[in-house]
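User: I'm curious whether this sequence folds into something compact or stays loose and floppy. Could you predict its structure so I can see for myself?
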Amino acid sequence: MDWVRISQILCMFGFLKEFRPGEPFITDYLTSEWKNFTSEQVTEDIYPVGTYSYCATLVVIFLLTDFLRYKPIIILCGLSGIIAFCTLTFGKSLGAMQFLEFMYGFYLSTDVAYYTYIYAKVDKKHYEKVSSYTRSAFLFGR
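Assistant: Here's the prediction. I'll summarize afterward.
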């Protein structure tokens, strides 16, 4: 595959990965009548799981990316994102929301594979272009 096609695929993936329009409203959603958690539960029991799981899985993902290469980790990124957002939609218990945050931390930690895949597949003379394309697509999704 040539560098243009790889950058197009990664740009599309980066945009879709970061396009989360409901994310600023998750706290309101969790404390509303839909999920009915208290604000204290959300800030003390649910959100810290995501932070700590991100830190823990980042080390594991960093090592697995070198061992398994990039595509399986990028696929795991997509699967963990699907699992996280399905759990957000259908989960009702505190344990389900903590599992959601664990999967979300895993989802965020797989950015390592997204960014390093470019440099493994593209010739050095195209690094600057591909880096700018994929980073701008990633930021455009936000």
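Summary: The chain has one domain: 3-17+42-141. The mean pLDDT is 92.
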